[in-house]
């Protein structure tokens, strides 16, 4: 029973499971029915399930049949309606087909028009896009065209600016186009082209400047000459109310403006054409002749391109080369003044240009560079002038050269260049000028002396007398008292020579003008040159005349000429002695002879050196006369009443001067003297000084009056006079002498010697 119950229970469960599966099959999507069917076949009751499935299918068929039977009449009606509709649908289809055919036929042109409209719209869009792109490209092309035009017209600096804008502003906006890439690749080449062309312009400028330096310098020197003339006029007319322009204003530098849009300034080669001005017209400024824009442009271009240092080095190197060429003088420069003038013009032109570059550019050249060039120029110029001026034998050419050098120096000094060395060199040329004058006047004197009759000048009237006096300021009271006709005690060569000496002095003064010398320096220069004229040139001419046998000089005339030589020589010695300035109270012991005496001995040496052409007796007599006069004058100087006191130190200095004179006498200034003959002129001074310096009174007093006395030439009166001067000094300078035994003894000795000298003097007079 239990088995039966269990079987029934399982059968019920299986039936329920099959029912569930059937419901699931009925309600589930066909795609998902596979798992459900698999669960049937996994079990063992699939046969029963199939039976149950068949039963369910039959049930559904019966339901369908019932439903069909219920709706059959409606289905038949619907079919009937559909058959009716099919005929109408065919008619409609035929109408639609016919309408479509007509529409296609009628719309064919419209379609073509629409297609054309479509193409037009497409072209319109393309054109619009193209215009937009061209609007971006057009500024680039315009800038590039502008760049090429600027380069074509040689406006290089604006071209470089345009290139910068093109590269950094315009090309980045259209960088994806091929032509832009070509432009970008071409930019470095354009920069190099600009550099090369601007450098070519600079080279043309430098070459033009080199060729026209003399014109620039000539203009600057003309301007300096005009300013100097104006200064002289103002100095001569101090009351004129016109204002004086300063040199700085007179030489205002013309600053050239760079106009980037001016074709003329771009194409100018560097030198402006200026016609020759008349002398009365205003001379243009030196910088007005030059257009410096090529330098400025090239400097700016290289600065923008980051190659300024390269440009500066190139410019300085080229200008140094040009400086060396300018400073090389032509070999025949000394032949004419124009040779010197052209040489100076080139130098001035070179430095005027460099000075302008210095003040109008920042750092292209600096002061150190200019100073270096000027030092080189100064040394080479001075060397060239020394060499070439030495060939000049014409004093007029030397004088013109001096004036040209002064103008050259003044011109460069205006621009701030130191010219002291040039004026120092002019002092050297002054000596050469003096030599050329001496040679010229030697010929003049020779002609005067050759044409003279050496007869006294006769005058028959007061007018003739005044005419001669006007030529030669001769004063003779006895001659003035004599009645006409009367004769001057000289021939015609005297006033002629006198006038020529004045002309010589005037010629020397001309050279001293504008040398910035003091009146003392000018006087010394004139005195030195005139002394040479008298002692060498005129003296030689006179000596030659005296030696010539065909000159009819009387013995009285020769004697007068010789006496004049002796007198003039002694007067010259007196002039030197007037410069003596002894400190008679000095306590210092000197170590060298006095300056005035050294100059006097030098004068005597040079004078006697030119006496070699005189007759030997005349030269010897002149030399002996001079030495005796010098010795006598020195003795008078020592013993003169104005010298109330003197010290042993002063005697020592005086002794050094006498030794200098003795050394001169021993040197044999004039040949023909026996040994020590000239020294005898100073024997009185020598014995007197030895007596006092050695304080050898015992010997002097013991041997006085004997022929072999060591101090035979010492007069006791002279010795006493000098001793009294030292005695007063000893007393006044030794306030406490009474407290020092040595001083008291010395004073007693001086008193004793003075007393004995007075005894000698008294016995001599008695």
UniProtKB/TrEMBL annotation:
Keyword Coiled coil: yes
InterPro entries listed in its UniProt record: EXOC6/Sec15 (IPR007225), EXOC6/Sec15_C (IPR046361), EXOC6/Sec15_C_dom1 (IPR042045), EXOC6_Sec15_N (IPR048359)
Function text: Component of the exocyst complex involved in the docking of exocytic vesicles with fusion sites on the plasma membrane.
Residue stretches making up the Exocyst complex subunit EXOC6/Sec15 C-terminal domain: 421-552, 555-725
A GO-annotated cellular component: exocyst
Record keywords: Coiled coil, Exocytosis, Transport
Pfam (any one): EXOC6_Sec15_N
Encoding gene per record: EXOC6B
Region (Disordered): 257-280
Domain Exocyst complex component EXOC6/Sec15 N-terminal: 52-221
GO biological process terms on file: exocytosis; Golgi to plasma membrane transport; intracellular protein transport; vesicle tethering involved in exocytosis
Record's protein name: Exocyst complex component
Similarity section: Belongs to the SEC15 family.
């Amino acid at each position: 029973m239990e088995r039966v119950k269990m079987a029934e229970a399982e059968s019920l469960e299986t039936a329920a499971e099959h029912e569930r599966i059937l419901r699931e099959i009925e309600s589930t999507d066909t795609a998902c029915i596979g798992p459900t069917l698999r669960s049937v076949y996994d079990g063992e009751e699939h046969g029963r399930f199939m039976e149950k499935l068949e039963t369910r299918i039959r049930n559904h068929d019966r339901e369908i049949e019932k439903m069909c039977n219920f709706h059959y009449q409606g289905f038949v009606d619907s079919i009937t309606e559909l058959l009716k509709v099919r005929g109408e649908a065919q008619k409609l289809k035929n109408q639609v087909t016919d309408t479509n055919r007509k529409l296609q036929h009628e719309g064919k042109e419209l379609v073509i028009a629409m297609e054309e409209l479509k193409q037009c719209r497409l072209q319109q869009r393309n054109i619009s896009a193209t215009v937009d792109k061209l609007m971006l490209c057009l500024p680039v092309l315009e800038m590039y065209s502008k760049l090429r035009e600027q380069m074509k017209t040689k406006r290089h600096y604006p071209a470089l600016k345009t290139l910068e804008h093109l590269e950094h502003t315009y090309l980045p906006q259209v960088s994806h186009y091929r032509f832009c890439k070509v432009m970008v690749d071409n930019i470095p080449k354009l920069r190099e082209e600009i550099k090369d062309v601007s450098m070519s312009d600079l080279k043309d400028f430098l070459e033009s400047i080199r060729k026209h330096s003399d014109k620039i310098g000539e203009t600057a020197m003309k301007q300096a000459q005009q300013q100097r003339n104006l200064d002289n006029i103002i100095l001569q007319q101090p009351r004129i109310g016109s204002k004086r322009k300063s040199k700085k204003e007179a030489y205002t530098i013309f600053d050239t403006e760079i106009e980037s849009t001016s074709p003329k300034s771009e194409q100018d080669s560097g030198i402006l054409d200026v016609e020759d001005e008349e002398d009365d017209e205003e001379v243009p400024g030196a910088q007005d002749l030059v257009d410096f824009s090529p330098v400025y442009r090239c400097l700016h271009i290289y600065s923008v391109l980051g190659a300024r240092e390269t440009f500066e080095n190139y410019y300085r190197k080229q200008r140094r080369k040009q400086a060396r060429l300018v400073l090389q003088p032509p070999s025949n420069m000394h032949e004419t003044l124009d040779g010197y003038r052209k040489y100076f013009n080139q130098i001035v032109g070179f430095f005027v240009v460099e000075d302008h570059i210095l003040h109008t550019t920042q750092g292209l050249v600096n002061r150190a560079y200019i100073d270096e060039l000027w030092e080189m120029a100064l040394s080479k110029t001075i060397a060239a002038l020394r060499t070439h001026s030495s060939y000049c034998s014409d004093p007029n050419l030397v004088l013109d050269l001096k004036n040209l050098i002064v103008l050259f120096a003044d011109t460069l000094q205006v621009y701030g260049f130191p010219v002291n060395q040039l004026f120092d060199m002019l002092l050297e040329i002054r000596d050469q000028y003096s030599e050329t004058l001496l040679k010229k006047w030697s010929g003049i004197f020779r002609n005067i002396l050759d044409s003279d009759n050496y007869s006294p000048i006769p005058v028959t009237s007061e007018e003739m007398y005044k005419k001669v006096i006007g030529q030669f300021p001769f004063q003779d009271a006895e001659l003035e008292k004599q009645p006409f006709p009367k004769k001057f005690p000289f021939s015609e060569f005297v006033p002629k020579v006198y006038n020529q000496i004045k002309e010589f002095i005037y010629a020397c003064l001309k050279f001293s003008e504008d040398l910035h010398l003091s009146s003392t320096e000018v006087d010394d220069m004139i005195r030195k040159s005139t002394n040479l004229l008298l002692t060498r040139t005129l003296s030689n001419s006179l000596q030659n005349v005296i030696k010539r046998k065909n000159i009819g000089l009387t013995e009285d005339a020769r004697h007068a000429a010789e006496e004049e030589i002796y007198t003039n020589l002694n007067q010259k010695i007196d002039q030197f002695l007037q410069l003596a300035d002894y400190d008679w109270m000095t306590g210092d012991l000197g170590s060298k002879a006095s300056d005035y005496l050294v100059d006097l001995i030098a004068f005597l040496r040079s004078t006697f050196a030119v006496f070699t052409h005189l007759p030997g007796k005349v030269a010897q007599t002149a030399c002996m006369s001079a030495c005796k006069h010098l010795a006598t004058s020195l003795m008078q100087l020592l013993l003169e009443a104005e010298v109330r006191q003197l010290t042993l130190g002063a005697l020592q200095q005086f002794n050094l001067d006498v030794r200098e004179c003795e050394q001169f006498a021993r040197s044999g200034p004039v040949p023909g003297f026996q040994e020590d003959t000239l020294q005898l002129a100073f024997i009185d001074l020598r014995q007197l000084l030895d007596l006092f310096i050695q304080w050898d009174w015992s010997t002097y007093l013991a041997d006085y009056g004997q022929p072999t006395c060591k101090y035979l030439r010492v007069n006791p009166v002279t010795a006493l006079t000098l001793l009294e001067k030292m005695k007063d000094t000893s007393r006044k300078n030794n306030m406490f002498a009474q407290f020092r035994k040595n001083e008291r003894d010395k004073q007693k000795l001086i008193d004793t010697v003075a007393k004995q000298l007075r005894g000698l003097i008294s016995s001599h007079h008695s």
